Amino acid sequence: MTRPEFALDVEAISAIPAVPVVLSMVKHLTGMRFAAVARVTDSHWVACAVDDSINFGLKPGGELVLESTICHEIRQHHNPVVFGHASVDPHYSTHHTPLAYGLESYISLPIVLADGRFFGTLCAIDSVPADLDDPAIVKTLTLFSQLIAMSLDTQGHLDTARAELSDANEHGRLREQFMAVLGHDLRTPLSAIRMSADLLATKTEDKRSLGLVAAIRQSSIRMGVLIENVLDFARGRMGGGIPVKRHLTDDLADVLAATVQEVRASQPQAIFVERISLGERVYCDPLRISQLLSNLLGNAVTHGSIATPIHLDVTQDDGQVVISVTNRGTPISARMMPLLFEPFTRSEAGGRGEGLGLGLYIASQIATAHDGTLTVNSSAESGTCFVARFPAVPQA
């Protein structure tokens, strides 16, 4: 039975597909009938892989007394040990290892990892002499031991990468769950704030108090948008995209017009010029398309020039609904373009950096969920224009 502390080492060697072939080749090259890969520490000798044709009795996980092996010496000096006829060898004829195990031929090479740590040995033994004088034998077995060491290093790197990836995935999952729970739990106190603001507005006529109530209501509206964005982001990340409920609707134009009015009321400093022309029923989720438009208009207010109008065009063209939002201001830099539709990314081009940076990400996800696209063009001459397109009718 394998000691628990060496189970991973035995498993690592068994996971290298080349090891059985290597052991077979060692036996073939040396003419010896037993070959093994051993894990050798300062206290243990453990067989990790074995090719045995002499019934020596060792299996993977089996052990020899460390001090009875020559591998114990190799661990200290990191040099190969080779002899083909122990009983006539000046040194090994009296060595305790050949005498204890009845060995005549022996070859063992160190397996040293890339960071210099000694793993063990690649070795072969037999009870009969073997011709091991050819230098090519040691060179070839040295390459085999290096191959095993490199395979162990590669496995170690893969295990580390897998562990880091697992940790990153777990951290991401917990972060997104936290965001979802946080967004959900914030809705209740926010609703109370809105209701309190509405109630206060009916109880006073003082202009200063009404101004404070309006500020509270405005802040609660903005907070509501942020919470919904957080929830949508969490849903999209954990559920494979932002969910939409599409159906044929003939009031999308009215819904979008109402969306513009809501944004206009919440952004009185901005100027909106809209043209909404939808002549047919549209297959969509009206609330999600309203959210897409609200995010695009909010982005235009935040990052565009307040001194110039924001233009909105909603039309149907060649079987598609086209929503175009254009604003003036500092153009988006080429460096920021690839990041615009990524979460938590704010444009640094002329904007005030408000919000979580989820608006454009969510808008692009809504467009994707409608089998559509969201694109952007930006230049000093024509301004910044976001265009969302999606099919107006169900696709086959």
TrEMBL record:
Domain Histidine kinase: 181-394
Keyword presence, ATP-binding: yes
Catalytic EC class: transferase
Annotated CDD domains: HisKA
Keywords of the record: ATP-binding, Kinase, Nucleotide-binding, Phosphoprotein, Transferase, Two-component regulatory system
Enzyme Commission code(s) on record: 2.7.13.3
Keyword Secreted listed: no
GO molecular function: kinase activity
Pfam families: GAF (PF01590), HATPase_c (PF02518), HisKA (PF00512)
Reaction catalysis annotation: ATP + protein L-histidine = ADP + protein N-phospho-L-histidine
Name of the protein: histidine kinase
